[in-house]
């Protein structure tokens, strides 16, 4: 195995900063056997007051072309960000290319966690937390990709709050996005013409225990998984449970969330009040041929529009007009 770097940043305060941290991990290997590359970066109790350029930048990749395993773990815990005018975190993982598309050459396991932290009184249009990944020509390779935002506060903040893309070319493995016990309060895009969040390509999604209050955006929060992730090899499994939406609007449609998927989506024990609607969905059945929506034990009161608007399309041969790609 190659050396496995571990970096811990603990109990630090940054004032009036820009481009503070850049981390590029691009390992190589010249030995025998199958190397395992590991990279761990942990931030705990870091405070940033006023920043106008990308604060934390991660690029993890390798040009190594033989069989390999790549493991990445990046965590932010108990951090505080205020008066931010840029991305807080940009994280991109590119594990290289497969040498032979008929064989397995790469195992990837990566996790990104943003936990028990606060973003407040900030203004940035394109996503405070931005997670991207990609690979080419890898139909037999394996990738486990997990993103978790848990127990955070997003308060009095302008712009897109988070965005994440799962891997596009890997067929095998799991993509999971967890949004758990977060509080979103008085967040808007002002006149910025954007949406609160954007997710693309995750086969497993869990929105659980979140509170969304007094949010106003030009567009819906968008979640896409065209035909089921991994080119339809795995249908979507999305659960929205124990969340609250109160006085959340967008200025173009009645709903505040748009879902495009194939597979199973469930809304269980949520409360929606004092707004227009909640969701609009469209099934994309090109690969899996099936899609279902369950709405169970939800409370919907003092609203002026629908809980769900439903549309269906069996085949798409080009991206949706509402699709967005990484900046």
How many beta-strand runs?
A: 30
**Unreliable residue stretches:** 313-327
H/E series, N to C?
Answer: EEEEEEEEEEEEEEEEEEEEEEEEEEEEEE
Structural class: mainly beta
Strand content: over 45%
What is the overall pLDDT average? Answer: 84
Helix count, DSSP H or I runs of 4 or more residues = 0
Report the radius of gyration as a whole number of Å.
20 Å
Q: In whole angstroms, how far apart are the ends?
A: 35 Å
What portion of residues is helical?
under 10%
Taking the sheet with the most strands, its summary is: 18 strands, parallel
The shape, in one word, is globular
Short description:
This protein is mainly β and 327 residues long. It has no helices and 30 strands. It has strands spanning 6-17, 21-25, 36-51, 56-61, 68-77, 80-84, 89-94, 106-115, 118-120, 123-133, 142-150, 153-155, 158-165, 172-180, 183-185, 197-200, 204-208, 211-213, 216-217, 221-224, 236-241, 244-246, 249-250, 257-261, 263-268, 271-273, 279-284, 291-296, 299-301, 308-313.
């Amino acid at each position: 195995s190659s050396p496995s770097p571990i970096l811990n940043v603990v109990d630090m305060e940054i004032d009036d900063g820009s481009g503070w941290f850049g981390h590029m991990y691009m390992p190589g290997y010249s030995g025998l056997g199958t190397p395992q590359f590991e990279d761990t970066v942990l931030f705990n109790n870091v405070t940033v007051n006023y920043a106008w350029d990308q604060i934390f930048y991660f690029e993890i990749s390798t040009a190594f072309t033989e069989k390999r395993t790549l493991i990445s773990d990046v965590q932010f815990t108990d951090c505080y960000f205020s008066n931010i005018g840029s991305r807080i975190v940009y994280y991109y993982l590119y594990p290289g290319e497969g040498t032979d598309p008929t064989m397995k050459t790469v195992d990837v396991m990566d996790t990104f966690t943003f936990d028990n932290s606060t973003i407040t009184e900030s203004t940035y249009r394109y996503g405070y937390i931005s997670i991207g990944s990609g690979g080419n020509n890898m139909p037999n390779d394996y990738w486990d990709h997990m993103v978790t935002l848990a127990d955070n506060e997003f308060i009095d903040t302008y712009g897109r709050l988070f965005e994440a893309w799962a891997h596009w070319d890997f067929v095998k493995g799991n993509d999971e996005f967890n949004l758990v016990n977060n509080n979103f309060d008085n967040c808007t895009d002002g006149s910025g013409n954007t949406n609160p969040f954007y997710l693309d390509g995750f086969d497993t999604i869990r929105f659980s225990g979140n509170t969304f209050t007094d949010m106003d955006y030009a567009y819906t929060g968008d979640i896409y998984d065209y035909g089921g992730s991994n080119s339809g090899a795995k249908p979507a499994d999305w659960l929205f449970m124990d969340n609250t939406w109160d006085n959340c609007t967008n200025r173009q449609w009645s709903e505040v969330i748009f879902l495009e998927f194939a597979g199973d989506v469930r809304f269980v024990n949520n409360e929606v009040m004092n707004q227009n609607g909640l969701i609009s969905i469209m099934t994309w059945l090109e690969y899996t041929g099936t899609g279902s929506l369950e709405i169970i034990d939800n409370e919907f009161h003092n609203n002026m529009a629908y809980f769900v608007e439903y549309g269906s399309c069996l085949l798409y041969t080009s991206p949706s007009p509402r699709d967005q790609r990484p900046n």
